[in-house]
Design goal:
The protein is an alpha/beta fold. It has a single domain, classed as 3-Layer(aba) Sandwich (Rossmann fold). The protein contains ten helices and 13 strands. The strands form three sheets. A six-stranded mixed β-sheet has the order 9-10-11-6-12-13, sandwiched between helices. Helix 6 packs parallel to helix 7. The chain is globular. The protein binds adenosine-5'-triphosphate. The site of adenosine-5'-triphosphate (ATP) has 13 residues, from helix 1. It holds the Pfam family ABC_tran. It comes from Natronolimnobius baerhuensis.
Length: 287
Protein backbone atom coordinates (compact mmCIF):
# COMPACT_ATOMS: atom_id res chain seq x y z
CA UNK A 1 0.00 0.00 0.00
CA UNK A 2 1.21 3.47 -0.78
CA UNK A 3 0.13 7.05 -0.15
CA UNK A 4 -0.36 9.18 -3.22
CA UNK A 5 0.64 12.82 -3.45
CA UNK A 6 -2.87 13.99 -2.59
CA UNK A 7 -2.56 12.25 0.74
CA UNK A 8 -5.09 9.62 -0.19
CA UNK A 9 -3.85 6.11 0.18
CA UNK A 10 -4.28 3.66 -2.61
CA UNK A 11 -4.26 -0.06 -2.46
CA UNK A 12 -2.27 -1.96 -4.95
CA UNK A 13 -3.84 -5.13 -6.17
CA UNK A 14 -0.82 -6.37 -8.01
CA UNK A 15 -2.30 -9.70 -9.06
CA UNK A 16 -5.18 -7.90 -10.72
CA UNK A 17 -2.83 -5.27 -12.10
CA UNK A 18 -4.97 -2.41 -10.84
CA UNK A 19 -5.04 -0.05 -7.92
CA UNK A 20 -8.00 1.06 -5.91
CA UNK A 21 -8.69 3.76 -3.41
CA UNK A 22 -11.59 4.23 -1.09
CA UNK A 23 -13.48 7.41 -1.92
CA UNK A 24 -15.30 7.44 1.42
CA UNK A 25 -12.78 8.61 3.96
CA UNK A 26 -9.34 10.09 4.30
CA UNK A 27 -7.97 6.90 5.74
CA UNK A 28 -9.03 4.21 3.42
CA UNK A 29 -7.33 1.12 3.28
CA UNK A 30 -6.41 -2.04 2.25
CA UNK A 31 -8.68 -4.56 0.98
CA UNK A 32 -6.18 -7.25 0.12
CA UNK A 33 -6.79 -8.93 -3.20
CA UNK A 34 -7.86 -12.47 -2.51
CA UNK A 35 -7.59 -15.04 -5.26
CA UNK A 36 -11.03 -16.63 -5.70
CA UNK A 37 -12.67 -15.32 -2.53
CA UNK A 38 -15.46 -17.54 -1.25
CA UNK A 39 -17.47 -14.50 -0.13
CA UNK A 40 -17.30 -11.11 -1.76
CA UNK A 41 -19.09 -7.95 -0.71
CA UNK A 42 -19.34 -5.07 -3.19
CA UNK A 43 -20.80 -1.70 -2.31
CA UNK A 44 -23.00 -3.29 0.33
CA UNK A 45 -25.39 -0.98 2.20
CA UNK A 46 -27.68 -2.20 4.96
CA UNK A 47 -30.54 -0.17 6.43
CA UNK A 48 -32.87 -0.65 9.37
CA UNK A 49 -35.85 1.46 8.38
CA UNK A 50 -34.40 4.89 7.59
CA UNK A 51 -31.17 4.29 9.50
CA UNK A 52 -28.17 3.12 7.50
CA UNK A 53 -26.14 0.58 9.50
CA UNK A 54 -23.52 -0.28 6.87
CA UNK A 55 -22.06 1.96 4.16
CA UNK A 56 -20.67 0.65 0.91
CA UNK A 57 -18.80 -2.34 2.29
CA UNK A 58 -16.24 -3.96 -0.03
CA UNK A 59 -14.61 -7.11 1.26
CA UNK A 60 -13.17 -10.32 -0.15
CA UNK A 61 -13.19 -13.19 2.31
CA UNK A 62 -10.68 -15.97 1.62
CA UNK A 63 -11.60 -19.62 1.72
CA UNK A 64 -10.50 -21.88 4.60
CA UNK A 65 -9.14 -19.06 6.67
CA UNK A 66 -10.39 -17.23 9.75
CA UNK A 67 -11.58 -13.67 9.10
CA UNK A 68 -12.26 -11.59 12.22
CA UNK A 69 -14.64 -8.63 12.26
CA UNK A 70 -13.74 -6.16 15.02
CA UNK A 71 -14.81 -2.66 16.03
CA UNK A 72 -16.69 -0.77 18.73
CA UNK A 73 -20.24 -1.54 19.76
CA UNK A 74 -22.86 -0.65 17.18
CA UNK A 75 -20.47 -0.31 14.22
CA UNK A 76 -22.27 -2.98 12.21
CA UNK A 77 -20.21 -6.17 12.69
CA UNK A 78 -23.20 -8.39 13.42
CA UNK A 79 -25.20 -6.72 10.67
CA UNK A 80 -22.48 -7.58 8.16
CA UNK A 81 -22.22 -11.15 9.46
CA UNK A 82 -25.99 -11.63 9.18
CA UNK A 83 -25.94 -10.24 5.63
CA UNK A 84 -23.77 -13.14 4.52
CA UNK A 85 -26.39 -15.85 5.06
CA UNK A 86 -29.40 -13.55 4.85
CA UNK A 87 -30.29 -13.76 8.52
CA UNK A 88 -31.19 -10.08 8.18
CA UNK A 89 -34.19 -11.28 6.13
CA UNK A 90 -35.71 -12.26 9.47
CA UNK A 91 -35.69 -8.60 10.62
CA UNK A 92 -38.71 -6.90 9.03
CA UNK A 93 -37.19 -3.43 8.78
CA UNK A 94 -33.81 -4.56 7.42
CA UNK A 95 -33.01 -3.79 3.77
CA UNK A 96 -29.87 -4.62 1.80
CA UNK A 97 -28.49 -2.91 -1.32
CA UNK A 98 -25.43 -3.94 -3.30
CA UNK A 99 -23.82 -7.30 -3.90
CA UNK A 100 -22.94 -10.04 -1.48
CA UNK A 101 -21.77 -13.07 -3.36
CA UNK A 102 -21.01 -16.59 -2.23
CA UNK A 103 -18.87 -18.47 -4.73
CA UNK A 104 -19.61 -15.82 -7.33
CA UNK A 105 -23.42 -15.85 -6.96
CA UNK A 106 -25.22 -12.89 -5.40
CA UNK A 107 -27.06 -14.34 -2.41
CA UNK A 108 -29.72 -11.63 -2.82
CA UNK A 109 -30.69 -12.79 -6.32
CA UNK A 110 -34.34 -13.75 -6.56
CA UNK A 111 -33.59 -17.37 -7.35
CA UNK A 112 -31.59 -17.94 -4.15
CA UNK A 113 -33.38 -19.94 -1.47
CA UNK A 114 -32.22 -18.54 1.91
CA UNK A 115 -32.79 -21.87 3.64
CA UNK A 116 -30.54 -23.65 1.15
CA UNK A 117 -28.02 -20.82 1.54
CA UNK A 118 -27.93 -21.30 5.31
CA UNK A 119 -27.23 -24.98 4.71
CA UNK A 120 -23.98 -23.85 3.09
CA UNK A 121 -23.34 -20.99 5.50
CA UNK A 122 -24.07 -22.02 9.08
CA UNK A 123 -24.14 -19.78 12.12
CA UNK A 124 -23.18 -19.90 15.81
CA UNK A 125 -24.50 -17.22 18.16
CA UNK A 126 -23.14 -15.37 21.17
CA UNK A 127 -25.17 -17.21 23.75
CA UNK A 128 -25.10 -21.00 23.55
CA UNK A 129 -28.63 -21.99 22.50
CA UNK A 130 -28.95 -25.77 22.54
CA UNK A 131 -32.47 -27.12 22.10
CA UNK A 132 -34.14 -28.75 25.13
CA UNK A 133 -33.32 -32.13 23.61
CA UNK A 134 -30.67 -34.77 24.08
CA UNK A 135 -27.10 -34.11 23.01
CA UNK A 136 -27.60 -36.60 20.19
CA UNK A 137 -30.83 -35.01 18.99
CA UNK A 138 -29.35 -31.51 19.07
CA UNK A 139 -26.77 -32.54 16.49
CA UNK A 140 -29.09 -34.88 14.57
CA UNK A 141 -31.55 -31.98 14.28
CA UNK A 142 -29.08 -30.16 12.08
CA UNK A 143 -29.10 -33.17 9.75
CA UNK A 144 -32.85 -33.83 9.89
CA UNK A 145 -33.93 -30.27 9.28
CA UNK A 146 -31.75 -30.18 6.22
CA UNK A 147 -33.03 -33.49 4.91
CA UNK A 148 -29.75 -35.30 5.51
CA UNK A 149 -31.30 -38.13 7.48
CA UNK A 150 -32.44 -40.29 4.59
CA UNK A 151 -32.12 -44.06 4.53
CA UNK A 152 -28.68 -43.83 2.97
CA UNK A 153 -27.27 -41.71 5.78
CA UNK A 154 -25.82 -43.16 8.96
CA UNK A 155 -27.13 -40.48 11.33
CA UNK A 156 -25.29 -41.88 14.33
CA UNK A 157 -21.96 -41.81 12.52
CA UNK A 158 -22.61 -38.26 11.27
CA UNK A 159 -23.54 -37.09 14.77
CA UNK A 160 -20.37 -38.58 16.22
CA UNK A 161 -18.24 -37.03 13.48
CA UNK A 162 -19.75 -33.59 14.10
CA UNK A 163 -19.21 -33.92 17.85
CA UNK A 164 -15.63 -34.98 17.23
CA UNK A 165 -14.98 -32.04 14.89
CA UNK A 166 -16.40 -29.76 17.57
CA UNK A 167 -13.93 -31.24 20.09
CA UNK A 168 -16.78 -32.48 22.29
CA UNK A 169 -17.17 -36.20 21.57
CA UNK A 170 -14.70 -37.41 24.18
CA UNK A 171 -16.44 -35.46 26.94
CA UNK A 172 -19.99 -36.56 26.12
CA UNK A 173 -19.57 -39.98 24.58
CA UNK A 174 -21.32 -41.73 27.47
CA UNK A 175 -24.18 -39.28 27.82
CA UNK A 176 -25.49 -38.75 24.30
CA UNK A 177 -29.05 -39.37 25.51
CA UNK A 178 -28.84 -36.73 28.23
CA UNK A 179 -30.11 -33.19 27.80
CA UNK A 180 -27.86 -30.70 26.03
CA UNK A 181 -28.98 -28.13 28.61
CA UNK A 182 -27.14 -30.02 31.36
CA UNK A 183 -23.74 -29.35 29.80
CA UNK A 184 -21.47 -26.50 30.93
CA UNK A 185 -21.64 -23.22 28.99
CA UNK A 186 -18.48 -24.03 27.03
CA UNK A 187 -19.71 -27.53 26.23
CA UNK A 188 -23.09 -26.12 25.17
CA UNK A 189 -21.34 -23.78 22.76
CA UNK A 190 -19.30 -26.64 21.31
CA UNK A 191 -22.58 -28.58 21.00
CA UNK A 192 -24.02 -25.65 19.01
CA UNK A 193 -20.91 -25.70 16.83
CA UNK A 194 -21.43 -29.46 16.29
CA UNK A 195 -25.05 -28.75 15.33
CA UNK A 196 -23.89 -26.09 12.87
CA UNK A 197 -21.29 -28.30 11.22
CA UNK A 198 -23.36 -31.52 11.08
CA UNK A 199 -24.97 -30.59 7.73
CA UNK A 200 -21.46 -30.00 6.38
CA UNK A 201 -21.56 -26.29 5.51
CA UNK A 202 -18.74 -24.51 3.70
CA UNK A 203 -18.75 -21.40 5.86
CA UNK A 204 -19.33 -20.96 9.59
CA UNK A 205 -20.34 -17.52 10.84
CA UNK A 206 -19.69 -16.92 14.53
CA UNK A 207 -21.08 -13.95 16.42
CA UNK A 208 -18.95 -13.51 19.54
CA UNK A 209 -19.08 -17.24 20.28
CA UNK A 210 -16.93 -17.05 23.40
CA UNK A 211 -18.07 -13.82 25.00
CA UNK A 212 -20.37 -15.59 27.47
CA UNK A 213 -17.72 -18.15 28.49
CA UNK A 214 -15.02 -18.38 31.16
CA UNK A 215 -11.33 -18.20 30.13
CA UNK A 216 -10.80 -21.97 29.97
CA UNK A 217 -13.89 -22.53 27.82
CA UNK A 218 -12.91 -19.52 25.70
CA UNK A 219 -9.50 -20.97 25.04
CA UNK A 220 -11.08 -24.26 23.91
CA UNK A 221 -13.34 -22.39 21.49
CA UNK A 222 -10.34 -20.44 20.15
CA UNK A 223 -8.40 -23.66 19.54
CA UNK A 224 -11.45 -25.12 17.87
CA UNK A 225 -11.90 -22.12 15.55
CA UNK A 226 -8.36 -22.55 14.31
CA UNK A 227 -8.94 -26.26 13.72
CA UNK A 228 -12.23 -25.64 11.92
CA UNK A 229 -10.47 -23.37 9.44
CA UNK A 230 -8.60 -26.42 8.12
CA UNK A 231 -11.90 -27.56 6.68
CA UNK A 232 -14.25 -24.58 6.67
CA UNK A 233 -14.17 -20.85 6.10
CA UNK A 234 -14.76 -19.08 9.42
CA UNK A 235 -15.97 -15.49 9.81
CA UNK A 236 -16.04 -14.42 13.45
CA UNK A 237 -17.23 -11.27 15.19
CA UNK A 238 -15.33 -10.53 18.36
CA UNK A 239 -15.03 -7.67 20.81
CA UNK A 240 -11.80 -9.14 22.03
CA UNK A 241 -8.88 -7.79 20.05
CA UNK A 242 -6.40 -10.23 21.57
CA UNK A 243 -8.67 -13.01 20.43
CA UNK A 244 -8.79 -11.63 16.89
CA UNK A 245 -5.00 -11.33 16.88
CA UNK A 246 -4.58 -14.89 18.16
CA UNK A 247 -6.93 -16.77 15.91
CA UNK A 248 -7.55 -14.90 12.67
CA UNK A 249 -5.70 -14.68 9.36
CA UNK A 250 -7.50 -11.57 8.15
CA UNK A 251 -9.05 -8.77 10.19
CA UNK A 252 -11.69 -6.27 9.16
CA UNK A 253 -12.01 -3.17 11.33
CA UNK A 254 -15.40 -1.47 11.31
CA UNK A 255 -15.72 1.89 13.00
CA UNK A 256 -18.62 3.99 14.21
CA UNK A 257 -21.24 4.75 11.64
CA UNK A 258 -20.99 1.43 9.84
CA UNK A 259 -17.85 1.96 7.75
CA UNK A 260 -15.25 -0.67 7.05
CA UNK A 261 -12.10 1.30 7.72
CA UNK A 262 -9.40 -1.29 7.18
CA UNK A 263 -9.19 -4.89 6.05
CA UNK A 264 -5.92 -6.70 5.80
CA UNK A 265 -3.77 -9.52 7.10
CA UNK A 266 -4.22 -9.71 10.85
CA UNK A 267 -0.50 -9.15 11.52
CA UNK A 268 -0.56 -6.00 9.42
CA UNK A 269 -3.64 -4.63 11.19
CA UNK A 270 -2.18 -5.18 14.63
CA UNK A 271 1.44 -4.29 13.90
CA UNK A 272 1.27 -1.59 11.29
CA UNK A 273 -2.25 -0.40 10.41
CA UNK A 274 -2.65 2.10 7.60
CA UNK A 275 -5.34 4.15 9.29
CA UNK A 276 -4.68 6.34 12.33
CA UNK A 277 -8.21 5.66 13.49
CA UNK A 278 -7.56 1.92 13.43
CA UNK A 279 -4.32 2.40 15.32
CA UNK A 280 -6.15 4.46 17.95
CA UNK A 281 -8.82 1.78 18.23
CA UNK A 282 -6.48 -1.17 18.59
CA UNK A 283 -4.23 0.64 21.05
CA UNK A 284 -7.30 1.32 23.19
CA UNK A 285 -7.55 5.08 22.70
CA UNK A 286 -11.27 4.65 22.12
CA UNK A 287 -13.93 1.99 21.75
N1 LIG B 1 -32.87 -5.40 14.57
C1 LIG B 1 -32.46 -4.13 14.49
N2 LIG B 1 -33.36 -3.13 14.33
C2 LIG B 1 -32.97 -1.84 14.24
N3 LIG B 1 -31.68 -1.43 14.31
C3 LIG B 1 -30.74 -2.39 14.48
C4 LIG B 1 -31.08 -3.78 14.57
N4 LIG B 1 -29.94 -4.48 14.72
C5 LIG B 1 -28.93 -3.58 14.74
N5 LIG B 1 -29.42 -2.33 14.59
C6 LIG B 1 -28.62 -1.09 14.56
O1 LIG B 1 -27.63 -1.20 13.55
C7 LIG B 1 -26.38 -0.68 14.00
C8 LIG B 1 -25.33 -1.78 13.92
O2 LIG B 1 -25.66 -2.79 14.86
P1 LIG B 1 -24.86 -4.15 14.97
O3 LIG B 1 -25.54 -4.99 16.01
O4 LIG B 1 -24.67 -4.71 13.64
O5 LIG B 1 -23.45 -3.63 15.52
P2 LIG B 1 -22.28 -4.45 16.22
O6 LIG B 1 -21.01 -3.82 15.77
O7 LIG B 1 -22.44 -5.90 15.97
O8 LIG B 1 -22.54 -4.11 17.74
P3 LIG B 1 -22.21 -4.96 19.06
O9 LIG B 1 -20.73 -5.11 19.08
O10 LIG B 1 -22.71 -4.10 20.17
O11 LIG B 1 -22.94 -6.27 18.95
C9 LIG B 1 -26.62 -0.16 15.40
O12 LIG B 1 -26.89 1.22 15.32
C10 LIG B 1 -27.84 -0.91 15.85
O13 LIG B 1 -28.60 -0.14 16.77
Amino acid sequence: MTANSGGQRTVSTSEAGESRSDPMTDAPLGSPHVADPIIESRDLDVYYGDDQALHSIDMEIPEQQVTALIGPSGCGKSTFLRSINRMNDLIDIARVDGDLSFRGKNVYDEDVDPVALRRKIGMVFQKPNPFPKSIFDNVAYGLRVQGKDGADVDVEAEVRTALERAALLEEVEDQLDESGLELSGGQQQRLCIARAIAPDPEVILMDEPASALDPVATSKIEDLVEELAEEYTVVIVTHNMQQAARISDKTAVFLTGGHLVEFDDTNKIFENPESDRVEDYITGKFG
